[in-house]
Amino acid sequence: MYKKILVALENSRADDTLVPHIAELARRLGSELLLVHVADGWAARNFNQLKLAESTEMKEDQAYLDSVAAGLRRVGLTVAVELVLGNPPTEILKVAELRACGLIAMTSHGHKLIGDFFLGSTIDKVRHNTAIPILVVRAGAGTGTAPPFGK
Q: Do the bridges between strand 79-85 and strand 134-138 make them parallel or antiparallel, or are there none, so unpaired?
């Protein structure tokens, strides 16, 4: 059903909720996982235009992706990683289309109207601009015993 699942990671504690859900889903369905993180700091957003050197943030984000991927591979899953630079909703959608993903998995922080107004809602922007199904897991939602997948 979902041969390839894009897992949008934030490099935050919210990933601790998302990764076990998606690992179990991928295990049951035999899906390949594509872990994606969008570096969106100043250096990342201006990297190509200004020919900047890779920032500490970008290096740490890549190391984080590699660490989570290694943990998932240890439990037998097929995992690829991709660090992209720029605007999170735009880049998530671009990668999902380019890599022919059948599902996009993300976390929700449960912001209300005011929070979304000030913080923006990546999920909202992604869901309004794709026909790819989206699985949203509420950050902090219990999953039982979670295997160690990085960090």
A: unpaired
